Each structure stands twice: as C-alpha cells, then as structure tokens.
Amino acid sequence: xxxxxxxxxxxxxxxxxxxxxxxxxxxxxxxxxxxxxxxxxxxxxxxxxxxxxxxxxxxxxxxxxxxxxxxxxxxxxxxxxxxxxxxxxxxxxxxxxxxxxxxxxxxxxxxxxxxxxxxxxxxxxxxxxxxxxxxxxxxxxxxxxxxxxxxxxxxxxxxxxxxxxxxxxxxxxxxxxxxxxxxxxxxxxxxxxxxxxxxxxxxxxxxxxxxxxxxxxxxxxxxxxxxxxxxxxxxxxxxxxxxxxxxxxxxxxxxxxxxxxxxxxxxxxxxxxxxxxxxxxxxxxxxxxxxxxxxxxxxxxxxxxxxxxxxxxxxxxxxxxxxxxxxxxxxxxxxxxxxxxxxxxxxxxxxxxxxxxxxxxxxxxxxxxxxxxxxxxxxxxxxxxxxxxxxxxxxxxxxxxxxxxxxxxxxxxxxxxxxxxxxxxxxxxxxxxxxxxxxxxxxxxxxxxxxxxxxxxxxxxxxxxxxxxxxxxxxxxxxxxxxxxxxxxxxxxxxxxxxxxxxxxxxxxxxxxxxxxxxxxxxxxxxxxxxxxxxxxxxxxxxxxxxxxxxxxxxxxxxxxxxxxxxxxxxxxxxxxxxxxxxxxxxxxxxxxxxxxxxxxxxxxxxxxxxxxxxxxxxxxxxxxxxxxxxxxxxxxxxxxxxxxxxxxxxxxxxxxxxxxxxxxxxxxxxxxxxxxxxxxxxxxxxxxxxxxxxxxxxxxxxxxxxxxxxxxxxxxxxxxxxxxxx
Length: 727
Hints:
seven-stranded parallel β-sheet; alpha/beta; 48% helix; Arc Repressor Mutant, subunit A
C-alpha cells in the first residue's frame, strides 16, 4: 500500500492527517507480513498500530487482550469510527450463546476486521477450530508484558499463546506493551518465538507529564487542597489498601469533591458502575487500588495522585501514564515517607527468597526515585534503559523546577568507585554506604571488610549522603546495578575510566524525608493550557455531555478535548469543515457532528466572529518519538504439590499463581485441596474473619488468630474467599 493510501485511510477512519512517531513504519511492517514488537509508552498510539492495518487488510485480525472491560472499551471505540458495528467484536465469557453466534456469523461474512479475545477464550477447542476455518490477517498481543514473569502484571495464560496461534494460522504477530525493561523485552520475544521480529521502541519520555513528590504529612489535607485547584477536572488517586480507598473517597465527598471508590472488594456491578460514571464524567475523581486503570482508555485524566508510593518504579510509570493521554495537562503527584517502604518490605516476609530479593530491589528503586534530587524524568528513563539530557525536562518535574544545592563531588565519586573495585564488585548499595562511613555491621565483619585499608574513607559524610552519591553515579552511567544478582553494583567502562582520570562531578543535595517537614502546598504547576474561546468551549463541553447521556456512551467517545479545543479556533459550521478538525473522521462527523456544527454556527453569528478559514490544520505530532493449564489441573482436582512438580515449582509458587489468577477476576475452586487439610469448623472461622475484616492483609489475619494457622492455610482460605465473594 502506498504511503498516500495509508495517510488517506488514517484520515478517513480516524480523522488524523499524520501519524505519531513510528506508527507509519510499524503499520508498513505489519502489512508486509513481518513479525513486529512495539514498545511504546501509554498515550503514544499503540492501538493504531494494529487497528488501521486490520481495517485495510483482508480477513480478521485477532487481538489478545487481558481484561473484559478493556476489550469492551476498545470495541466501542472502533465502532465509533465506522457506521457498521460489525467492524469490531469481542469473544469472551461475558457473551451469551446467541451473541457468540452473531460474532461468528459476522466474521464468516467478512464484516469483522478486529476480534478481541481473552487468552482463556483462545484455549477453547471450538474457538480454535472456528478461527482455523476463517481468514486471519494477523495476531496482535496487547499488554505483552503479561507474558513475562519479570513484568509487573504477569499472567500465566499468556505464555501459551504461541502454541495456540500455530494451531490456528501461520500469520504474522504484532506484540505491544507500554512498559518493558530490557529483561522483560527479551523474555517476551523468546516466549513468542519471534526473536526475528523488528523491534520498534519509542522513547518513554512523556513530555506533557509533570512529576512531583511531596513528603507524606497531613496527606489527606494536602490532597483536598490540591483537588480544589483542579475543579471539574478528571483525576485518579491510588491507594495500596481497600480500607484507605473507602476512607479517602468518603472524606473527599464530605469535602465537596465528586469522588467514588474502586477496588476488587466491591462487587462487579458496583465496580462497573463507578468506572462508567468516571468515563461519563458524572464523577470527577476515582479513588482506587491498582485494580483500576488497565480497563479504561480515558484520554483526559488531568492528574494522578499516589497516596501511597507503589511497589515498583514500573508500576509507578504505568499508573502515572494514565494522565494526559491526549497530550494535554497531566500532573503526577506522589506522597512519600520511608516508613511506607519498610511496611511493604515486611509484606515480603514468608515469600521465597528469590521473590523477596526481587521485591526489595524494586522497593529500593522506588525509594531512590522518591528521595532523589536528580531530574525525575532522567531517573525514570534511565530505569527503562534510556538516556536523557535533563536540560530538556523544561521544568516539568519538581527537581528541575526547584533545583537543589550542588557541591563538587569528584573526590567522593572516585573514592566510591575505588571501593567498588577493591571489594571486587560483589556488594549492594547498603554495604558500600556502611563501608564508606566506617559502620561495623555483622556483614562487614563476615567479609572482613572492616579490616580493609579503605574502610571508613568517607566517614566525614553520613549514610544518606553516600546513598545520594551511589544513586547519582548509577544514573550517570559510572556504576550499574546487576538485575540478576538483585542490585549488586558493577563498574562500567566509564566508571573504570573515571578512576584513572577523574573529572568534575556535581553532587546534588538529596531531599530529607526522615524528619518533620513543613507541609508544602502542591502548586498548580504542570499544565500548559492554550488560550482559547472559553465561552464556546464550555458550551461544546455541555453539549457533548448531553449527547453522551442520551446515547449512553462516555463523552470522549464523541469528540476528545483536543478536537473541541480546535473547534474553538477554527469554528467549523458544517460537516465538511468538521472533518478538518484533528481527531474527527468522516464516521464521527456524520454520526455526531450536526449538533456541534449547528451550535458553532449560531455562536459565530451571535458574536460576529470572523473565521480564519485559511488557517493551516495542525497535525498531532508525538515528539517523543500457564493459567489455563493450571485451572484445568485444578478442575481435575490434582493436588497442588503434583501441579507444582510438573511445572518445576513448589506449592508456594503454585499458590502465588492461583492468587494472581483470582486477583485478575477469575473464579478458581480449590475446595477439594482445602478440605483435605482444614476441618470444616476451621474453614468457617477463617472465612468469617475475611468477611468482617477491614483488610485482606495476611499479617493482620495471622495476628488475629495468634498464630493458630499457618500463612499457607490463611492464603488458601483467602483464595477461597476472594474467588467466591469478589469474583
């Protein structure tokens, strides 16, 4: 297909004049029949990379998606770019038999270009046989990081996708993810047997997002004050516990904030209703656990607040990435205190040693990010293997906006690097901090490092200072953290060169979150709002809301905010002129445009507005350039020990897998196993506890029963409870 044809298709179906970043090259690679791997941040336009080639290709593209809510959301969006609802369907457990029959009929008739499927649906024999009988254009795997055990949202069923695809059709695969460290990227490609795939990795830099960390003190007051500066704007607040979600949502409502809670403890109907109210703009703020987010595609979330710091920098990036997906204002505010990190570390106790080590390493990274005075954007991008010049941050993080005190640190850095070399590159940050300051720890004695000539070479400075030096030398590329050994520091080539020939190195004074800190009022600082006709814009927003209620669809499905803003510059007064607005294709203009054009026409006439019809249309540019098998074995009532043995895992790891499955919303019945190890009265006692408990935290449960039941017994009963009550 010619370049012009692609651009014409983009304009016709989606209303855009130009592609974002590498979208065009990716689409050509898919249309040429090649395997494709796309790593692109949230808001970068991943969906377009398979939606457009699916529409213009012969046959049906099969898109694997992890959540029912996400599938429905994407199918609805696709139907709004076409006048024919048959263009996109989903196939999952939520469909009735007659609905599923209609889906199959539309595919056979050649009407359906995109079929969204859950990985569980793909394992059903009748679905495999059906898909093998029709023309498949290509397979797409959305949220591909779910394949990797190193990813932040691992789903075992994703690891069977390749063998299922091969049963259906030998067509190309496009895998897409919004977040992948180099380790996760390699794991995805190996599992899908697509090491030959062309990899398109966009910058993880989201230029429109503003990052800020505040000390966690009087946090609820700070959040209320902050939200009052964002009247009428959409936002998400993340908390780690359900109890805190409920408390905060109630507090916000009492203080006049239109807010609702969202967590896995709510019944499915309530969750769906709260999500829809957020999408439909009947509620401004959702207070949620991490259960909220993947199932929505709302482009105009203006702020994301973390009441509690998350468990990893990858989770933080994914969650903050839900702000400003339309390229507009997006502020990312987090509240931090080290006690929260220590609390999360305690939850790791009782887990396998390797899992504890990975968990601690991830917590170290998020603590480092929170406490650093280095450009936050630079630190995030470094984590994802990307270098960034902090001078290009444009004051879009608190540390660049309010720079910290610096001092010459050449001598400190050289001594640190020499120490790493002398200790044979075998230790982690904590050990080097103790070594530099002359702290005699049990580990120091065990290694006899307290007898080393360099021991205490930096004792004039304290441990927080040396922590800062280590962080800044890692971000600068003089040291690296080895993932496989959970954060052991290694010298890089640049680090070895620095030892031989040191150069100037400025150390930035780090934030102190240990002592009492005065409450800092969050500023309304990250937005970049353009000047526009506000009176018309308000009328268009009201009209959009009325139509959305009438049609029962989210407002942004009609027209997104950037499109409405451009209408306030161009003043389109008919359907033809509306198609010149970014994000307004022929389908949308025909379906929704008339009342907007009419309103604008009347507004122009009433206010004697001179329209600049020769205005050049601006183009949107992106500058940044084995769950099924496990369930089947459980259905066969195999002992968990046997299931684990077959997978090379112990019972604890099998329970981990089952917990992941249940947390994702799937019902799992392990009563046969529990009945063998726990009496009925015991089961009833533990079950009743979880029914009345304010938290599903195992530590609290263990303390409540004063150690009468083991962690494993409590975990199994929690699985039973969650499966029966939450799913």
